[in-house]
Design a protein that fits this description.
about 220 residues, mainly alpha
Length: about 220
Amino acid sequence: MKGELIEVEHPREFFARMRVMTQTYRDIAEVEYTNYMLIQAMPEVNDEEEMHRRSSQTTKHAIQTIVFSAMCVEAAINDYAGTHLGDKYFDTHLSSLDVVSKWVVIPKLVCGNELDKSSAAFGSLKALIRARNQLVHSKSQEIGTISKKLIEQLELANEKFSQDFMNSLKALYLLTMEMDFVVGQRYNPLGTMDSAFTFEDPRPEPLSKLYQECKNIVLKKYS
């Protein structure tokens, strides 16, 4: 993220793979995040029907942001392992690991470097996978009669969901930027976001703001 090339030796110099979905999942997560933030930025209204419509839309955008951000980081580390350790070795020995463990173990096996477990990226990654698992393995819960305690519980649940959404794409961006320093821009499983080594269309304001926030966090660590 400093615009300086970081060279980390890897087992393979050239590789090509099919059914690579990492970028597609990231694109979807970014679109859904942007849509959520644009709705949130709309002027407030007193129309109950419109408020309900917006709430329903933002919930859907939030769920898709969380799920596709998590799918992106899982697809990326699986591809990275298959590329440099071999698909058979990955399927036999590593595929059953949880996603967070993969991000710790696999780079260490491939190039000898390990994701810093005290980093903001690692903490956000853990929170992202927890949120994804709660959605994918969703369970309904019986509620009692309306009471102050029940209202507080519902408010806390809504706040937690909002936090999970705000962390989701942030986790993806932080991990992407952190991995530049772990494995180098060339081999970053998520693809580098360092503007010196990639060509991307201008990001819409919500993404640009998040990008800069994450960049500041990571660069502060490596300054």
